[in-house]
Amino acid sequence: MAYEGVWRFTAPALDSSVPRARHAVRDLLARQGVPTHGDLLPSLLLIVSELVTNAVRHAALLSPEIAVEVSIGPDWVRVAVEDNHPYRPKALEADQGQTGGRGLLLVQAITAEAGGAYDVAHTASGGKAVWAALPFTPPAAAAPAHITNPHRAR
User: Fold this and answer.
1) Using CA atoms, how far apart are residues 133 and 67, in angstroms rounded to an integer?
2) 108 near 92, Cβ under 8 Å?
3) Which of 85, 110, 128, 151 has the least CB density, counted as fewest CB within 10 Å?
């Protein structure tokens, strides 16, 4: 496919990089002609926002620069955010009193709902890359268990 490939860009670990990364990914997918139907594009952009936000908030001290990588295959698109902080992030349980801290839970939920994959990988430089991959076609919706046979005798 013409849209397949890997693109990588870096950004400073600043709050202003969050919307910049989101726009860069959106523009790249449009420029490459990636088939982003349904919820795929909004889901990917939300994932990018959450992952870049986490890198900016939690890794900036050890990683003044972050990298965003977009990999596009024949059936999926993967976004990864890499920083030089060795700490492996964990999704926090929802706490009604907190206004933040649920970004990774959101990423995991979006990824699972789309039938994708999410993980954290260590990098050769001692940092980490947090990534999520979503398929172009969502999993088929399960048929409800209460389907009735329209041809059944009444």
Assistant:
1) 16
2) no
3) 151
E strand intervals along the chain: 5-12, 65-72, 76-83, 117-122, 128-135
Q: What is this structure's pTM?
A: 0.83
User: Which pair of structure tokens corresponds to residue 82?
Assistant: 């890499």
**List of residues 6+ apart from 73 with CB closer than 8 A:** 4
What's CA 50's distance to the chain center, in Å?
A: 8
Whether 73 and 4 have beta carbons less than 8 Å apart is answered as yes
Render each residue's pLDDT in the chain as its tens digit; 154 residues: 678 999 999 999 999 999 999 999 999 999 999 988 889 999 999 999 999 999 999 998 899 999 999 999 999 999 999 999 988 777 655 555 555 557 889 999 999 999 999 999 999 999 999 999 999 987 765 444 444 444 444 4
Q: At what angle do helices 103-114 and 40-59 cross, to 10 degrees?
A: 150
Look at residues 18, 26, 92 and name the one whose alpha carbon lies nearest to residue 55.
18
